[in-house]
Write a structure and sequence with these properties.
By secondary structure, this protein is an alpha/beta fold. The protein is 46% helix and 13% strand. The strands form 5 sheets. An 8-stranded parallel beta sheet has the order 9-6-5-15-14-13-12-10. The protein has a 3-stranded mixed beta sheet with strand order 2-1-11. The relative contact order is 0.14.
Length: 454
């Protein structure tokens, strides 16, 4: 693998290009050309596709886009270009297994295959959401106390001690430290002191990230996010995060979340862009595992036919052609406390598990409100374990059936549910009766279609 210093040199000496020109003449033009050349087509009747050749073509197109585009460093307007051999080296050296967490709470995070019969690793938490400090600790416990939850990726703090967290201010560092303290305290209280954390979500820039690189906060068995900027871009902040955390000894996680209909184009181009982003981030960020998070331009969530098709084809393309470890976001428009949130969870989770990804979530209300809890993540885990018995064709029928229950009529007006304190008893940290009853009804509904929940 090329060194940090060589990557840094390319941020200063690589080909110069204005950001707008990169967007239009490189990303947009090349992604559309490759979609046409490989005849990649989105089929809303086959959200979970059984076409192996389509997955392979998406991978090939993504490889070509990675080679052609590279990552634009927006600060210097220089492109970090990689050679074909450097990209292939990244593929060869990518870890297919990672032991994350510590002691009895350690888990083997592994690269899943298409229609993999092994139980996936369940990552719980309302990732990407701003969570009030007043109940951050209790909300974290609600996930950690669930035996089916293996690892944690909860949201960040938008305020700390009543002070708004502003980018690059001291509050960003203090909020990130507070976030990790709450997570560590919650883990001990839940009897899961060694649980793997994907954390530091209060840190937008490298400011907070640098503040928590210690065993007191983020351990070397933990991970943090290094986002790829849309589309196929990075900056000094992200590179600083990647370089310093890898030197520290923790795990780098590449977050890729392009918007369908952006410069990459429709779902076909977005899928190609995902592959390119993963291949480039493996080398440039030295990423250890990866998150799939396509964004719908109108509904935001991963629950639309377009975004779930992207989850499906990217998962299969990587599973068939690499040893990359993928986490598929379960990012719902509806919130905890609604019936529809369970329908979205089924569709997303089945799609992810059958096509090569581990499920991550549930990030209810598109991560906008703290309307989430451990109970719907328990449900996600149960659905995930049941889904390992499915073939892709069966999974496709289940996804389409549940899609009818929440889309499209209800996506414009999602039921955002209720905040955590209205879902759980704050003293016992147990689900309130009405919320538990709704969960049990959803379980019966899923079992009625043949998914046997444990």
């Amino acid at each position: 693998m090329i060194s940090f210093y060589e990557i840094l040199r390319r941020t200063e000496e690589g080909p110069h290009i204005d950001e707008r020109e990169f967007d239009l003449k490189v990303v947009a033009r090349e992604s559309r050309r490759l979609v046409r050349e490989y005849d990649i087509r989105f089929n809303r009747e086959e959200i979970v596709t059984s076409d192996d050749s389509l997955a392979d073509d998406v991978f090939k197109a993504g490889f070509e886009l990675a080679l052609r585009a590279g990552f634009l460093t927006v600060d210097s307007r220089r492109v970090i270009k990689l050679s074909e051999e450097e990209i292939k080296e990244g593929l060869r050296t990518a870890p297919g297994e990672l032991l994350v967490g510590q002691g009895a709470d350690a888990r083997l995070l592994y690269a899943r295959k298409v229609e993999d019969s092994r139980y996936p690793v369940i990552m719980g938490g309302q990732a990407g959401a701003p969570i009030p400090e007043e109940f951050y600790y209790q909300m974290a416990i609600s996930y950690m106390q669930e035996p089916i939850v293996d690892t944690i990726n909860n949201g960040g703090l938008a305020e700390v001690k009543g002070i708004e967290v502003r980018t690059r201010s001291p509050a960003e560092a203090l909020a990130t430290m507070a976030e990790l303290r709450y997570l560590r305290e919650a883990a001990r209280a839940a009897g899961r002191p060694g649980i793997h954390l994907l954390a530091g979500e209060s840190s937008v820039t490298c400011t907070g990230d640098l503040a928590v690189q210690s065993e007191e906060f983020l351990r070397k068995t933990d991970a943090h996010l290094v986002p790829v900027l849309n589309d196929l871009k990075t900056d000094y902040d992200r590179l600083t995060k990647a370089f310093t955390f890898k030197i520290y000894g923790g795990f780098n996680v590449a977050l890729v979340d392009p918007v369908v209909g952006g410069f990459l184009g429709g779902p076909e181009g977005v899928a190609v862009g995902f592959i390119a982003s993963y291949l480039l981030s493996r080398v440039i960020y030295m990423s250890d595992y990866y998150i799939i998070h396509p964004i719908h331009p109108k509904y935001v969530s991963t629950s639309t036919p377009e975004t779930m098709w992207v989850l499906n084809i990217v998962g299969q393309a990587m599973a068939r052609n690499s040893n990359f470890i993928l986490m598929g976001d379960v990012w719902t428009s509806n919130g905890a406390g609604s019936r529809e949130v369970f329908y979205e969870i089924v569709a997303n989770t089945v799609t992810n598990v059958v096509t090569g990804s581990h499920p991550l979530g549930v990030s209810a209300t598109n991560g906008k409100y703290p309307h989430a809890s451990g109970l719907e993540t328990r449900f996600m885990g149960e659905v995930a374990r049941a889904a390992v018995k499915l073939k892709r064709s069966d999974a496709n029928e289940i996804v389409k059936e549940f899609l009818k229950k929440y889309h499209p009529e209800r996506m414009d007006r999602p039921d955002i549910g209720k905040p955590f304190p209205e879902l759980y008893d704050m003293k016992t940290i147990t689900p309130k009766g009405w919320w538990l009853k709704m969960y049990e009804e959803a379980r019966r509904e899923v079992m009625d279609i043949g998914l046997k929940l444990g």
